[in-house]
Predict the structure of Deoxyribose-phosphate aldolase.
Amino acid sequence: MDLTPAQLAKYLDHTLLRPDATADDVASLAAEAVRLGTWSICVSPSMLPVAADLGEVKLAVVCGFPSGKHTPSVKAAEAREAVAHGADEVDMVIDVGLLRAGRLDDLTAEIARVKAEVPGVLKVIIESAKLSDDEIVSACQAAERAGADFVKTSTGFDPAGGASVHAVQLMAQTVGGQLGVKASGGIRDYATAIAMIEAGATRIGCSASAAILAGAAEK
């Protein structure tokens, strides 16, 4: 698969989630996203509202980030505030402990509670690198039952690692086109981004958007 820079840009959530990020950093991120034509920028909730003119670029905001060990009510409140401050999309981290303990009804309820606060797109981060295949399947099924719009591999902050082709393939197979699949964590070049898309990713989360699109321009 070969994509032009403009085609590939529409897969990208141009991301800045460093704890030390400033409002000026977000303004630079937004300007770069507009220049590159990415689908969105993805930032931390404390950076809202974003004052920069995003044009057609969407605003995505993380929730329960990065550990997921917040209560459902806190995640719901964080999502509600993000939407009130302009978020088009919310990327929530699940409580992976619920999944690993087999508490799938509680996991589904947590996701549904956040989705109730998000009229736009909700992406569900499952930290696939630390899960078994069966757990990945269960997490995707819970997200679908809860009404989420995407499943997402990783925060990019967990020591277990980020996206893998295998995880993306399994997630895409599980949701069967009913949900989008976002690959995130460790995607820094064109070849890796294309490999994830070929595996079934419909969105890519990355901070190296300029380098990835430069690779597309060289094809």
Summary: The longest helix spans residues 23-36. The two ends are 11 Å apart (CA to CA). The chain is about 40% helix and 15% strand. The longest strand covers residues 58-63.
